[in-house]
Design brief:
Elements (H helix, E strand, L loop, with lengths): L4 E3 L11 H9 L1 H4 L7 H7 L10 E4 L5 H8 L7 E5 L2 H10 L4 E4 L15 E6 L8 H13 L1 E11 L8 H7 L1 E9 L6 E8 L5
Parallel strand pairs: 2-3, 2-5, 3-4, 5-6
Antiparallel strand pairs: 1-4, 6-8, 7-8
Helix pairs in contact: 3-4
Pfam families: Methyltransf_25 (PF13649)
InterPro entries: Methyltransf_25, SAM-dependent_MTases_sf
Organism: Hoeflea prorocentri
Length: about 200
């Protein structure tokens, strides 16, 4: 499986069994970065305020697709969603479940090199465990994501600590400001949601 494998699936086989998350966690717990799938409450919080007019949307590390489902519930069609997922197991299941979406089995740090829509995205939804990643990789993910966003576009993420998981030096270099927009106490573990925006171009 190469980093740029494009999945297109069959909706009839697109159910994700409850064991999927556990299998992927057992394969690579640091890459999955959570002890349980994100809750529907967290999915509602991270997509709060979005509507059909907010596409296209890029998802990084969509996992079992709970955020994807929330985006659809907000009115964003799956044809306006591109999901970048490093796990081939998650990626193939997502492609089957959302056949009109673009699902790419890839490292999110390569986002700058992927032509996802042909136009800038409006929102990036990040489900990646940034705290467990080397700072250089976090920088590539953030820099590539903002290069893929329209001016004024937003990058949304969640974390299990109350601080933004992106190092301050990276935020400063890229000219990114952060805003904590939600707390989801009944997620396992409890989670905070942040929105990041770029106010100036990095020198």
């Amino acid at each position: 499986m190469t980093w740029s494998t494009l999945f297109k699936g069959d909706a009839a086989t697109g159910r994700l069994p409850a064991s999927s998350f556990g299998r992927e966690w057992m394969k690579a717990p640091l890459k999955v970065g959570a002890v349980a799938p994100s809750s529907s409450g967290l999915a509602r919080a991270i997509t709060n305020g979005l509507s059909a007019s907010d596409g296209p949307v890029i998802e990084l590390g969509p996992g079992t697709g709970v955020f994807t489902s929330a985006l659809l519930a907000r009115g964003i069609p799956d044809s306006r969603i591109a999901a970048i997922e490093a796990s081939s197991g998650f990626a193939s299941a997502l492609a089957a479940r959302y056949p009109a979406a673009t699902v790419i089995c890839a490292d999110a740090a390569r986002i700058r090199h992927l032509n996802l829509f042909g136009v800038p995205a409006n929102v990036v939804i990040c489900g990646l465990p940034l705290l467990s990643m080397p700072h250089g990789k976090v920088f590539r993910i953030l820099a590539g994501s903002f290069a893929s966003l329209r001016p004024g576009g937003s990058f949304r993420l969640f974390t299990y600590g109350w601080r933004c998981p992106v190092p301050g030096a990276i935020l400063d270099h890229l000219g990114i400001v952060t805003r904590r927009i939600a707390f989801v106490p009944f997620n396992i573990p409890p989670a905070w949601v942040y929105e990041l925006r770029r106010e100036k171009v990095a020198e």
